[in-house]
Amino acid sequence: MYDTGKVIIGLAIFACIFLFPFLYSHGSAAPKPKPSLDTPAIKALPQKKCVEDTKFMITTHMQFLNNWRDQALRDGNRWYVNKEGKKVWISLQNTCLRCHSNKKEFCDKCHNYAGVDPYCWDCHYDPNGSKL
Amino acid sequence: MNMDRRKFLKAAGLTTLVGLGGKGVFELLKPGTVEAEMAHEGHEEGGQEKGSGPKVRWAMLIDIMALNQEKIEKIVHTCHHLHNVPNWGDPKNEIKWIWEDEYEHVFPDSYNEYNHILAGLPFLLMCNHCDNPPCVRVCPVQATFKRPDGIVAQDYHRCIGCRFCMAACPYGSRSFNWLDPRVSLRKEIAQGRKLNKRFPTRMRGVVEKCNFCVERLAEGKDPGCVEAAPDVMFYGNLADPNSNVRKILKERVSLRRKLELGTKPSVFYLI
Fold first, then answer.
1. Of the spans A101-115, B44-58, B174-188, which averages the highest pLDDT?
2. Are B232 and B71 in contact (CB under 8 A)?
3. Shortest CA distance to A120 belongs to which of A110, A130, A129, A107?
4. Which of B101, B79, B94 has the alpha carbon at shortest distance from B175?
């Protein structure tokens, strides 16, 4: 092999650069986010329960909200009947964010952690926030 | 394949005929079937049951004789406040849901320069929520669609901003968000404008227009413009022969814009 020395030095430099981010942030993983449920509206609830049960909401809220959107806007049916038979008014801004009046602590925390940028907030906004 | 020259020429001739004639050949061979199919498809597009018309057909009546500048400003302000419509202050980026224009622009087809009664009057323009909306026909993604109650709705989630609907609309009822509407809204809020926190904004790159206040109708409220000027704007069910709007239309002379285009607008101007 020609230029063995140079190649090995080059490889070593490459390995250092390549591994740097892994080594640098090793052991300092971002803590798992805990979305805050600490809002006056939720505190006032007799039973802390969302539209559906918590596990369902955590895993399926994306599809769930998509269905809500289509049902309200495309079909013009703004009432959602949950598994317990309770009627809920379909509205992200006026129903979801009425209880979850802390978008930054509730929605954004997980979304930022997961690196997702849902386009909901291009048009909808937190009615409790001071900034648009 | 075994085929003599005579058979080959027959087959070739028939193929050419179908190729050139298309629909007409089917008409020749089996009259009526194609037209029936097309009529059937067209019917489904309307989203209505055959025979029976829609049960609800929202219409808006605007009493031109009762309009004045003060009321126009109130109506436009109420509508644009309720829907967080930005005011760019620049006609190039203008977004409008309801706005004012003069007779010769509103009725260019029937403009009569000797008609001094209409010529001096202010007209309020909005989406006509046509029975046969050209914007719905051209939208490639079905972002704009006709609801069973006749309201032509716009789904901002689906809109790709191609602006075909704007080209198709003969009434200029649609506006395109060239810029992020929030930029203007933030500026206006700093100058004292209030946001309607029950309604979202739009984003850059979508087309918007009057939505007949569907969000308010769903809650059992009157449209914003009707609430702002109940003596000028009337809305009701055009499909019900005993409704308030039908009664008014029986008694008063009314105009509709560009009827010759066959869009069947559901906004009536009372004179």
1. B174-188
2. yes
3. A107
4. B94
The full set of domain ranges for chain B reads 5-46, 58-270
Distance between A128 CA and the closest CA of chain B, angstroms:
8
* A122 in reach of chain B (CB within 8 A): yes
Which pTM does this prediction carry?
Answer: 0.79
Question: What span, in angstroms and rounded, lies between the C-alpha atoms of B246 and A20?
Answer: 76
Give the Cα separation of A42 and A28 in Å (integer).
33
A78–B155 C-beta distance less than 8 A: no
Q: How many Cβ contacts (< 8 angstroms) between chains A and B?
A: 35
Please give the distance of CA B191 from its chain centroid, rounded to a whole number: 33
Tens digit of each residue's pLDDT (9 = 90 or more) over A74-131: 999 999 999 989 999 999 999 999 999 999 999 999 999 999 999 999 999 999 887 8
With left for phi above 0 and alpha for psi between -120 and 50, is residue B3 left, alpha or beta? Answer: beta
Chain B residue numbers with beta carbons less than 8 Å from the beta carbon of A97 are none
Which residues pair with residue B123 across a beta bridge? Answer: B101
Using an 8 Å CB-CB cutoff, list residues of chain B that contact chain A: 145, 147-149, 153, 155-157, 182, 185-186, 189, 195, 197-203, 214, 218
Contact check, Cβ <8 Å, B148/A69: no
ipTM above 0.90, yes or no: no
- The pair of structure tokens assigned to B118 is 């209409």
Strands (E), chain A: 79-81, 87-89
**Cβ contacts of B189 on chain A, cutoff 8 Å:** 132
- Range name among A10-24, A66-80, B15-29, B65-79 with the lowest pLDDT average: B15-29
CATH number attached to the domain at B58-270: 3.30.70.20
Residue written as tokens 């022969």?
B241
